[in-house]
Design a protein that fits this description.
Layout lengths: L51 H49 L1
Length: about 100
């Protein structure tokens, strides 16, 4: 009654294909390509070019990010302060009720 019945996996029926045989291949190294003699000189310019528009966009984005993060942190601090104040009022109320008895 309490013996679990383990299902048996039925064997596949019909035609099955045998697994493909993979034969190793030989790796032959090839001669390296000849190095070119003409070398172009590297330019002395920065990888990222900042224009006035991109600088203003970065400053504006950074300012907006600081303001948003600041607003979120201030609202969280206000929520904690309100919760602490309400818990303190509840504690004083319970204390005064218990003291009257």
């Amino acid at each position: 009654m309490f013996r679990p019945k383990v299902p048996t996996m039925p064997q596949p029926t019909g035609l099955t294909t045998p697994p493909a045989v993979v034969e190793p291949t030989a790796v032959t190294p090839h001669a390296p390509a000849p190095a070119s003699t003409a070398v172009t000189p590297a330019r002395n310019r920065p990888a990222v070019q900042l224009t006035l528009g991109t600088v203003l966009a970065l400053v504006g984005g950074g300012t907006a990010l600081v303001l948003v993060v600041g607003a979120v942190l201030v609202s969280m601090l206000l929520a904690v302060a309100l919760t602490a104040a309400s818990v303190a009022v509840c504690a004083l109320t319970v204390r005064s009720v218990i003291a009257r008895r």
